[in-house]
Write a structure and sequence with these properties.
Elements lengths: L1 H11 L1 H24 L9 E7 L2 E7 L3 E3 L4 E10 L2 E4 L6 E2 L2 E7 L4 E2 L4 E11 L4 E5 L3 E6 L9 E4 L3 E6 L27 H30 L5 E2 H14 L8 H20 L8 H11 L7 H17 L5 H17 L6 E2 L1 H8 L1
Parallel strand pairs: 3-13
Antiparallel strand pairs: 1-2, 2-4, 4-9, 5-11, 6-7, 7-9, 8-9, 10-13, 11-12, 14-15
Length: 355
């Protein structure tokens, strides 16, 4: 117990803890430099192409030009365009040409400057065959805000990507023919180099210290007895603040829908334990079906509400003021109908949300 108390005293002294962090970072940097100088370490060469038209740039990038049957390929499709344009990405589901889509990511749009915004989609791909496989052309559609219905949207299409897929089997191998028992072979792996063990040890020490500091800080907060708050009370108060900010009258449409959908997503996490703020709408709706329980009965209402918000945030949809008032009321109705006096939010989580 005396030694453990000494560890806590070291952590509580901000200066010493800072030096521990700096030391761990230096060790990690030395390990990275040693890895770069390690002979025989292969660096994958990425593949990238750009398609530009006016002030719109479409970039398609793969993290490697060749891969094995057991590897995964990360494909990134990004669009840089004026912030007032709506961007529609191609619909990609389970397959992309000869590739299997194992996962996809939808990062939030990023403002590059006062006029340009960047949208991204990332895909994790796998293969089922060897050879030179092609990622098919992908078409991006851009919608001009306020354009007439008869105006053709702007479209940019990428060129096919050629990815070489290799196999460890010899060329022309007959997989159906029985093989003789192979003699024992020596494993090529000879253990981790010394710099890797140093980096792992430094990371473990830093992790243990961070866990000890977090547990003690958490214990102190609990001992202080900070009161928890009801989830539905927090959500209704946030909706009241949103209404008082009068974003509907000011026609700050995108900001309004970002806030109202964020309030609802945080409330769902507090009330039902689903990590809605960190998921896309599709991921959240799928998680809702898996979780079941009371929230599953509200799936259709939440699906329509969140998809309406996504149209505004990502497709530049311009709803009327009455639609915005209805969205605010639907969010309020959902919170009131699902309110639970036993769903509490810690003071720490409430402060983090308010910030």
């Amino acid at each position: 117990m005396t030694r453990l108390g000494g560890v806590f005293r070291i952590i509580d002294r901000g200066g010493r803890f800072t030096w521990l962090v700096i030391l761990a970072c230096l060790v990690a940097l030395m390990a990275i430099q040693a890895a770069a100088q390690e002979p025989g370490v292969a660096i994958e060469e990425s593949l990238e192409q750009h398609v530009a038209e006016g002030n719109v740039i479409v970039t398609l990038a793969a993290d490697r030009r060749s891969m094995g049957m057991a590897d995964q390929l990360r494909l990134t499709l990004s669009v840089t365009a004026p912030a007032d344009k709506g961007v529609i990405f191609p619909e990609i589901f389970d397959r992309l040409g000869p590739f299997l889509v194992r996962n996809d990511f939808v990062p939030d749009p990023e403002m590059l400057d006062s006029q340009l915004r960047q949208w991204k989609r990332e895909y994790l791909l796998e293969v089922e065959e060897v050879g030179e496989l092609a990622i098919p052309p992908l078409t991006i559609t851009l919608l001009e805000e306020g354009a007439a219905e008869d105006v053709e949207p702007q479209q940019l299409t990428t060129e096919p990507f050629q990815i070489v897929v290799t196999s460890i089997l010899p060329e022309g191998a007959d997989l159906k023919k029985p093989k003789d028992i192979a003699p024992p072979v020596e494993l090529a792996w000879r253990g981790l180099p010394i710099w890797a063990w140093i980096a792992i040890a430094a990371a473990l020490v830093l992790l243990v210290l961070a866990i000890l500091w977090w547990r003690r800080a958490r214990r102190r907060r609990l001992l202080r007895g900070e009161p928890s708050q009801l989830a539905h009370v927090l959500a209704l108060a946030a909706l009241d603040r949103l209404q008082s900010d009068d974003l509907i009258t000011l026609q700050r449409i995108e900001e309004f829908y970002v806030r109202v959908s964020g309030i609802l997503r945080y409330y769902i996490e507090w009330r039902f334990g689903l990590r809605a703020p960190e998921q896309t709408t599709e991921e959240f709706l799928e998680a809702m079906l898996v979780a079941g329980g009371p929230i599953a009965t509200h799936r259709d209402v939440l699906s329509a509400f969140l998809e309406h918000c996504d149209l505004v945030k990502f497709a530049r949809h311009q709803p009327a003021s009455d639609d915005m008032h209805n969205a605010l009321q639907r969010a309020r109705d959902f919170v009131e109908q699902t309110a639970d006096p036993e769903s509490l939010v810690s003071a720490e989580a409430a402060r983090a949300y308010a910030a």
